[in-house]
């Protein structure tokens, strides 16, 4: 993956990118990640997250709208290991994670609201592939996400080769 800085991309493509509000923290072993977006919308049920990270990631970014719930974790070390193994570039999660110390050692980018030790339920409820909205922007499957320690941005076209 080519190195980039979201600050530089914002400068170069001013007015052409969406900028996520500063609400997510980086947790994974990668301090930057980018790729085509695949989105999931689910609330306190990470069944679809598990399904996706166990499928080929193709260096995409999994964007999960978990409704901002602070009652349970939607992502943990087992899912992070699967995501890394299956070539997901990173996870952007509008929700919480657990096992953060272990995830920090893995070759995967993870941005989330925070941590909690409680796991989610597994009922198979949610939707995949549609638009999700949080952080003041719309994440669309098929568009592109760029994340680093300075922030998260999205664009309709790839910004780096």
Give the DSSP E fraction (strand runs of 2 or more residues).
25-35%
CATH superfamily: Ribonuclease E inhibitor RraA/RraA-like
N-to-C order of helices and strands: HEEEHEEHEHEEEEEE
CATH architecture: 3-Layer(bba) Sandwich
The count of β-strands is 12
- Taking the alpha carbons of the first and last residues, their distance comes to 9 Å
Helix/strand/pairing category:
alpha/beta
User: Helicity range of the residues?
Assistant: 10-25%
> CATH top level?
Alpha Beta
Largest sheet: 10 strands, mixed
Oligomeric description of these chains: single chain
Quickly count the helices: 4
Mean pLDDT: 97
Named CATH topology: Glucose Oxidase, domain 1
Number of domains: 1
Radius of gyration: 14 Å
Low-confidence stretches: none
The coarse silhouette is globular
Structure description:
The protein is an alpha/beta fold and 161 residues long. The protein has a single domain (25-155), classed as Ribonuclease E inhibitor RraA/RraA-like (Glucose Oxidase, domain 1). The protein is built from four helices and twelve strands, in the order αβββαββαβαββββββ. It has helices spanning 6-12, 47-53, 77-85, 100-103, and strands at residues 18-19, 25-26, 32-41, 61-65, 73-75, 90-97, 109-115, 127-128, 132-134, 137-139, 144-148, 151-155. Strands 1, 2, 3, 4, 5, 6, 7, 8, 11 and 12 form a ten-stranded mixed sheet that branches. A two-stranded antiparallel ribbon has the order 9-10. A hairpin with a 2-residue loop joins strand 9 and strand 10 (137-139). Helix 2 (47-53) packs parallel to helix 3 (77-85). The chain starts with 5 loop residues before the first helix and ends in a 6-residue tail after the last strand.
């Amino acid at each position: 993956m080519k190195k980039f800085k979201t600050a530089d991309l914002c400068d170069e493509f001013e007015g052409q990118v969406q900028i996520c509000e500063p609400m997510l923290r980086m947790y994974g072993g990668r301090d930057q990640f980018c790729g085509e977006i695949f989105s999931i919308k689910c609330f306190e049920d990470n069944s679809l997250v598990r399904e996706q990270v166990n499928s080929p990631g193709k260096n995409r970014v999994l964007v999960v709208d978990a409704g901002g719930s602070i009652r349970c974790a939607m992502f943990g070390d087992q899912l992070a290991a699967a995501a890394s193994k299956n070539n997901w570039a990173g996870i952007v999660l509008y929700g919480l994670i657990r096992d953060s110390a272990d995830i920090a050692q893995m070759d995967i980018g993870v941005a989330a609201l925070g941590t909690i030790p409680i796991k989610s339920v597994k009922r198979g409820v949610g939707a995949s592939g549609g638009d999700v909205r949080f952080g003041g922007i719309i994440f669309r499957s098929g568009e592109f996400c760029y994340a680093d320690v300075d922030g998260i941005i999205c664009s309709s076209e790839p910004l780096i080769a």
